[in-house]
Amino acid sequence: MEFVLAIIVGILATSAFYLMLRRSLVKVILGMVFLGNAVNLTIFSVARVTKGFAAFIPENANTLEGTYADPLPQALILTAIVIGFGTQAFAIALFRKAFQKVGDDDLDKMNSTDIMCNEDIPGGK
Amino acid sequence: MNSILAMPVVFPLFIGIIMLFFWQHRSIQRIINVIGSTVTLALAIYLTWYIKTSGIQCLYIGAWKAPFGIIFTADLLTMTMILVSGIIGFATALYSLGTMDETREHFGYYPLLQIMIMGINGSFMTGDLFNMFVWFEVLLISSFSLVALGGERSQLEGAIKYVILNLLSSSLFVVGVGILYGITGGLNMADLARKIPMLPNKGIINVMAMFFLVSFGIKAAIFPLFFWLPASYHTPPAAVSAIFAGMLTKVGVYALFRVFTLIFVTDIAFTHTIIIIIAMLTMLSGVLGAASQMEFRRILSFHIISQIGYMILGLGLMTPLGIAGGVFYIFHHIIVKTNLFFVSGVVSELKGTYLLKKLGGVLKLYPLLGLLFLIPALSLGGVPPLSGFWAKYTVAVAAVEKSEYLALAVSLFVGLLTLFSMIKIWNEVFWKEQKAEYAAEQQTLRQLPKFKIAMMFAPIILLAAITLFIGLYPEPFFDYANEAAHQLLNPSVYINAVLGGAQ
Asked: A109 and A102 in contact (C-beta within 8 Å)?
């Protein structure tokens, strides 16, 4: 199981970095989503995958006994998914707004903050 | 009875929520913001005194005993950061009254500011790595909104770079936290500090250390991960870029100080040598970048980077004096850098631009503003008797003690170049005659309302006074930094304070 997960994480992370290095904003956001998934799967697999042992305390006991899946990584992943969702949603809104202002989704065209020392650009002081 | 430790985090949240109820009422938001920031500052001063007198304190949230629950831990380093964030929050609250435009105030500038301060204080306070990630995200999402608020083209372009690189850094941080949990079974920092030296596999710890160095390094803007900073920090309004310049990168520096004095101390010869090398390159690349710039805030942005180099040089030396110098440096730098951004905002308010080419003649019209620029500028360059001199001197002496002569040479050279950049700004903005073709856009101070002028100058004078005070009377601050360094270099004190009661 870990083997399969490791391969999937590798594929996701590779494609994520490939996409994030592209110049198009849409591909960058897709890359961010892929990277988020790769990260979550990494946490899932490094914290030992235990199949079929839910972390429930039996009715007549006070503690967990025997084999059980560690619930904490799942809580971490859940938190990371929620946070990732929020930040990605913000990024999409921001990219859309930037696309409207610049009129292009090419990141190479978005360098006015670096050249504004020499030229006047609309909106910059 | 340590619930007061949560106050620097909970109170800004409370203020932020209250302000949301007055979404349409700009003036009420302004008043609440000033009152709230004052109370946060008062809380920070009280807490600093409390921690100074009673030692490291912990708050076990939900009464979950460490290492199982989330905890807040306050030691002297934490309190330095909380105190200075209180001061900067207060100064920015005043400064915003004088400079923030109506549109941004209508679209939630003040609530965002308070939520960001909550995130900043939370990441200083927490004693749990995953929780630190959550606080990072809280402060990042509000800073994303603040940097883009207003929607000017340059702001959006700067925000894109800022957002992408910071989200990348967060991803690396989570992977690091996840793998650390996988190998140790703990997330509590004191617990990790106790477990990591016992691990048989030393190699993976160094790999983890590099994960954290890169991810916090992006946030702290160290070489070669700083490119988002000069692309974005000069785009939002002056009040926003001032609090960003002061606090946000220092959250990354704080995180580096925390993990590299507490958790990753098993192979200092490897990790901390890398930090020293990065520190030297950070100083050099920042200051050389600044030398080539001709825009007021971009020069200052590049100087943030070079100053970060000094702080992590102190960390890399890992001697009592080095760490103390680093802590002292952080405190001095936040105050000075925020103040310089404030001054740049006033100049642009008067002259309508940040471009050095178009500026000029400020000193003749406003000698007081010139003086108020000179204090933080010379302090940044390390001219005695201002605060920057003592900070640089301490780090330099620490480098000599450790026989790091190359680092010493770089730090002195960079100090000289910093002075060069500050003199460049002085010459271009304050000293030279403004060219007649650019003089049309400006307004004079007399045209501005009295209240606005007072609110612009009050925080600048306050921060300049603090800089002068540290410079002329550094002893209490230095004693404090020494004590903080002592705590950082003896992790057992921290570990016992966190886990002692639980075992």
From this structure: yes
* A57 occurs within a structural domain: no
Q: Å from B351 to nearest chain A CA?
A: 11
Residue B406 distance to chain A (closest CA, Å) = 32
CATH code (residue A72): 1.10.287.3510
Q: What angle do CA A8, A10, A15 make, to 5 degrees?
A: 100
Could you give the CA distance from residue B150 to residue A124 in angstroms, rounded to a whole number?
Answer: 12
Question: Are the beta carbons of B168 and A72 separated by less than 8 Å?
Answer: no
User: What is the number of domains present in chain A?
Assistant: 1
Checking if the pLDDT of A48 tops 90, the result is: no
Query: What would the pLDDT profile of B64-108 be if each residue is shown by its tens digit?
Result: 887 888 899 999 999 999 999 999 999 999 999 988 888 888 888
Whether the CB-CB separation of B359 and B296 falls below 8 Å is answered with yes
Chain B environment of A111 (Cβ under 8 Å): 157
pLDDT of residue A117: 52
Residue in chain A lying closest to B233 (CA): A113
B354 vs A: CB within 8 A: yes
Phi/psi at A70 (nearest 5 deg)?
-70, 120
In this complex, the residue of A83, A94, A113 whose CB is nearest that of residue B235 is A113
Burial of B1 by CB count in 10 Å (0-12 exposed, 13-18 middle, 19+ buried)? exposed
Distance CA B325, CA B393 (A): 8
Taking the Cβ of residue B37 and every Cβ of chain A, the question of whether any pair is shorter than 8 Å is answered with no
Per residue, the 3-state secondary structure of A22-51, as one string, reads: CCEHHHHHHHHHHHHHHHHHHHHHHCCCCC
Is B151 an interface residue toward A (CB < 8 Å)? yes
Any A CB within 8 A of B258 CB: no
**Residue A61 located in a structural domain:** no
Q: Which domain holds residue A17?
A: 2-51+67-115
Instruction: Say which of A20, A73, A116 has its CB closest to residue B154.
Output: A116
Q: pTM of whole model > 0.95?
A: no
A88-113 average pLDDT score: 86
Is B295 in contact with B429 (CB distance < 8 Å)?
A: no
